[in-house]
Design brief:
Elements lengths: L11 E4 L2 E4 H23 L5 H25 L2 H4 L18 H19 L3 H19 L1 H6 L13 E2 L2 H6 L7 E2 L2 H22 L6 H20 L6 E2 L2 E2 H23 L18
Antiparallel strand pairs: 1-2, 3-4, 5-6
Length: 281
C-alpha cells in the first residue's frame, strides 16, 4: 500500500456563530511564537523585552494588510474577474496572504514601531529574523488545512491527498496525489532557522546580516518550491510572478550581505543595544 499524506477533513469549526478557521489559527500561533522569541532575543541583546510588544502592535497589522494587498493584486480574477466578488478581498480569515506584501509592509510597521520606541531598526531586524522564519514555517500548515497551493502530481511516498473536488477543480482526475509544497516550504524554513542560529553563533556577522541572511534563505527555498506549484498565477516570460519576485529579492539580499560584510558595523551582543531618540506625537 502506497503511503500518502492525507488532508484534514475540515478546516473550519464553529463556536455558535463564530467560525474558527485553521488557517487563521496557524498564522496566529506563528505570530505569537515569533513575538515571544523576539522579546527573548531582544532581552539577550541588552534591550527591553517590552519594546517587542510595542513594535508588534505596528508590525503585525501592517504585515497582515500588506500580505492581503499583495495577494489580491497578484490574484485579481478571484475578486474582480467574472463571477468574483470584490467584497471578499476583505475576507482575510478565508486565506490568501502574500508573503512579500507582508514582509514589506510589516517592515514598515516595525520601522515605525522602532522609531516610536527609540530603538535601532537594523538591530531589531536581526533579533526578529529567526522568529519570522519560524512563523512562516508554522503558517504554511494553514495551506494544508485549506487544501491549497500544492505542487504537481506525484506518486512519491509523501504525496499529498486532496479531496476529489479539489483535484478536479485543479484540472486533474479524482484520486490524484500531489507534491506537498506546504510541507517542503515549512521544513525548509524550519531548517533555515537552525542555519540562522548557527551562523549567528559561529560566524562574525555584522549588524543587519542576520536579517538579510534570513531573506536569502527564504527566497532560495521559495524559488524551487514556487516552481513546483500548479495553482493559477500570473507569469512573465513563462515564469510565475513569485519566482521573479523571489529572484530579485534574492539578488538584493545577497548584495546587502556582501555590502554589510565589507562596510557594516560588527555585532556585539555583550553590549546594550543602540538607543535612538523616540518619536513622540
Amino acid at each position: 500500500m502506497v503511503m500518502t499524506i492525507p488532508s484534514p477533513a475540515q478546516s473550519v469549526w464553529y463556536l455558535g456563530p463564530l467560525a474558527v478557521r485553521a488557517y487563521a489559527i496557524c498564522i496566529l500561533i506563528g505570530i505569537a511564537i515569533a513575538i515571544w522569541w523576539t522579546a527573548k532575543r531582544w532581552r539577550e541583546r541588552g534591550g527591553d523585552p517590552e519594546v517587542t510588544y510595542q513594535i508588534a502592535l505596528w508590525a503585525v497589522p501592517f504585515g497582515i494588510i500588506g500580505g492581503r494587498i499583495y495577494h489580491v493584486i497578484t490574484s485579481p480574477d478571484a475578486y474582480f474577474g467574472s463571477g468574483g466578488d470584490p467584497v471578499t478581498a476583505l475576507y482575510i480569515w478565508q486565506g490568501g496572504l502574500g508573503i512579500w506584501g507582508a514582509i514589506v509592509l510589516g517592515a514598515l510597521g516595525a520601522w515605525i514601531g522602532c522609531r516610536r520606541a527609540g530603538v535601532s531598526f537594523i538591530q531589531y531586524a536581526d533579533a526578529v529574523a529567526p522568529g519570522i522564519l519560524l512563523a512562516q514555517a508554522i503558517g504554511r500548515w494553514g495551506n494544508w488545512f485549506n487544501q491549497e497551493l500544492f505542487g504537481g502530481p506525484t506518486d512519491l511516498p509523501w504525496a499529498l491527498e486532496v479531496s476529489d473536488r479539489v483535484a478536479i477543480a485543479a484540472g486533474y482526475e479524482a484520486g490524484t496525489t500531489f507534491h506537498p509544497t506546504f510541507l517542503y516550504e515549512s521544513l525548509w524554513s524550519a531548517a533555515g532557522v537552525l542555519v540562522l542560529l548557527w551562523c549567528e553563533k559561529r560566524l562574525r556577522l555584522r549588524t543587519g546580516q542576520v536579517f538579510w541572511l534570513y531573506v536569502l534563505i527564504y527566497t532560495t527555498g521559495r524559488l524551487w518550491v514556487e516552481m513546483l506549484r500548479v495553482d493559477q498565477a500570473h507569469t512573465i516570460l513563462g515564469l510565475r510572478l513569485n519566482v521573479w519576485t523571489s529572484l530579485i529579492v534574492w539578488i538584493g539580499a545577497l548584495a546587502a550581505i556582501i555590502f554589510l560584510g565589507r562596510r557594516g558595523t560588527p555585532t556585539n551582543h555583550t553590549e546594550p543595544t543602540t538607543k535612538v531618540e523616540p518619536v513622540n506625537d
